């Protein structure tokens, strides 16, 4: 069964976007995964197709209405749909490679893209939405975040990457940032490829790459070392 993604959005024209190109695009064309972008406004019931209203208690901006979103979700994900329901939100749990792998191993996902000030909390609770964040910053809406999440997931689907080992050695897969990479030419503006990488000694190359990964992680993301202690 292929991975099935349903995206609820006010801007369905943003999809597939970059997901229609390169590895993800070829996999989409091949049927390895499927994508439908659903217009939330189609589930509004007034002539203006209203999807938002002023926040209870006052304040700036608008809030996406629970009743409209509930109709959209219920239409897209009826009872029995095994796919998790995700809400792209800056207050959600940070997206990790571990969660990406879990999603890639599942049947797909229903993804709600928030806009304005956010989504009525009652909708989040009533429909069991999992709030997911792609970083500690604010976007204009959940659509770019949904594209990021889907790109991360789709590349892990069976057959999408030509070399499965490529995915296993990347940043976050083993709790470390990825080691530096080099290729021809041997010399570039006075900088040489490290001698060990052209030695042909695979044991030394593996040790060098591990040491470089550890050094980079200590320098740039020491928090990862606390979450994934290095073996002694």
TrEMBL record:
Chemical reaction(s) catalysed = guanosine(37) in tRNA + S-adenosyl-L-methionine = N(1)-methylguanosine(37) in tRNA + S-adenosyl-L-homocysteine + H(+)
Q: Keyword tRNA processing: yes or no?
A: yes
Gene3D superfamilies documented for this protein: 3.40.1280.10, tRNA(m1g37)methyltransferase, domain 2
Which CDD domains does its entry note?
TrmD-like (cd18080)
Which amino acid positions bind S-adenosyl-L-methionine, per UniProt?
A: 114, 134-139
Q: Name one GO biological process term.
A: tRNA N1-guanine methylation
Q: What cellular-component terms does GO give this entry?
A: cytosol
Query: What spans are recorded as compositionally biased (Basic and acidic residues)?
Result: 213-223
Could you say which EC number(s) this protein's record lists? 2.1.1.228
Subunit composition? Homodimer.
Q: What is this protein called?
A: tRNA (guanine-N(1)-)-methyltransferase
Q: Which gene produces this protein?
A: trmD
